[in-house]
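Project outcomes to date are best conveyed with an example. Our students and postdoctoral researchers have been running inverse folding experiments weekly, and each run begins with a structure described purely in tokens. The record below, which covers 215 residues, was selected by the lab manager from last quarter's runs and is presented without edits.
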């Protein structure tokens, strides 16, 4: 990280304090690399904000808190590449493609290989194709998603295990926000997937079950 990037982060931290937000940035605690473009974008936003205007300061505080969630490693931004099926997508992280399997949900098969189907006794179904089309429709205008890890990093097929957020939440454990902003939960809410929890990856088990019971 360049001195310029560090300086800008320090400036952002100062603005957080000045606006009385809870955004705290500690360089030594960062789990993910800081994207200089993100830092420059936030710095430009600060430059263009009228700090004497209460509404402008409030909007800036929201942006700083969202950015703070990203840099402290809780969420990882990724570029959406494509949808594999209802509960699997491909993303680009730092120039490398990764398959991501959504945690806590299961949609019927739609594009599984014959070898996999023979091994598991499953079959590709019309319901699976419907779930796949649903995920494609939800993500059709999405470039960036926000990945959240539970306990396990990958499954036995070397896919990242993640909760996939379309927007950063204000309160990630609020059931309504989960159902409106997280792809995993949206699939449950719209009856495209069943809740399927494999411990220890159970951070949102309560919220998923609540959403399923509402339908």
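After processing, the design step wrote out the following sequence:
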């Amino acid at each position: 990280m360049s001195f310029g990037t560090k300086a800008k982060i320090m400036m952002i931290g100062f603005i957080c304090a000045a606006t009385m937000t809870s955004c705290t940035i500690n360089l030594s605690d960062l789990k993910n690399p800081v994207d200089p473009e993100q830092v420059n974008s936030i710095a430009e936003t600060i430059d263009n904000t009228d700090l004497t205007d209460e509404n402008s300061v409030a909007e800036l505080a929201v942006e700083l808190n969202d950015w703070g969630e990203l840099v402290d490693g809780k969420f990882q931004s990724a570029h959406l590449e494509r949808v594999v099926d209802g509960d699997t997508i491909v993303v680009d992280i730092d120039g490398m493609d990764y398959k991501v399997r959504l945690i806590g949900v299961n949609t019927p098969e739609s594009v599984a290989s014959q070898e996999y189907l023979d091994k598991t006794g499953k079959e590709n179904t019309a319901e699976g194709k419907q779930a796949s089309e649903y995920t494609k429709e939800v993500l059709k205008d999405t470039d960036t998603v926000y990945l959240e890890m539970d306990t396990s990093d990958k499954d036995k097929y070397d896919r990242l295990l993640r909760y996939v957020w379309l927007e950063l939440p204000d309160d990630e454990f609020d059931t309504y926000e989960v159902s409106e902003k997280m792809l995993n939960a949206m699939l449950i809410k719209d009856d495209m997937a069943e809740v399927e929890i494999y411990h220890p990856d159970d951070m949102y088990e309560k919220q998923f079950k609540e959403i399923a019971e509402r339908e």
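The radius of gyration is 19 Å. Residues 76-214 form a domain with the OB fold (Dihydrolipoamide Acetyltransferase, E2P) fold (CATH 2.40.50.90). The training component of this project remains on track.
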